[in-house]
Amino acid sequence: MEISALVDSISSFLNLSSSRHIDLDPFDKYYKRVQELSKPMAVATVLNSDLVLEEKLCKSFQELTQDVDHSRDLFTSWHPFSSKVYFVLQIESLIPKMPDTIVDTFQFLKSSKHDLPDELSPASLQKCLEKIKHLSYEEISSVIDGALRDHREAVGPTPEILVKIGENTGLRSNQEILIEAVALERQKEIAEQSENNAVGVELYSSPYIYICKLTLLLYLVQ
């Protein structure tokens, strides 16, 4: 069941390639990142849909399915007046968790005593493993966190850092920055309502911390 659920989840995500805003900045690069990670996994699981997974791997598959589903929801729920910064922070919280499960899966297949298809020979599996292990992505969320820290300490951020954040979140014009400021204000109101209703915010463990970050981000984009 875990295998079929993961395959369905990945297939559903990959179908986003025809979405209208998928080729816009910054969505295209994040779509490609998830695609790069999940596509080999989909091929491997389809070819081995009858395998019996270990309990630990079953749990990993469930978590990966949830992360891929959540990634898809982030892409499908975004609209032109949504916050790009919020999207980036959310998607960058998901992508780093995916490689571990994928590596575990390929290592499991390598050690499996089942007769595997030719496409999953030990050499092919090792090649996939090496590729996944060497994938490296710059996370702009760490740059944003640094900028917020500098702002709190009244030592920045520098114009160069603000330009870097803008370029990596698709905020390059005054109009885009204005839309982002309005979107962040709306997101801040949602977070405040969540705190008042004692409902957790997914990205951060504390709604209060999340509200503080959104408030500071508003200063950065204005």
TrEMBL record:
InterPro entries: PUB2-4-like_N. Residues 4-135 form the PUB2-4-like N-terminal domain. This is (rape) hypothetical protein.
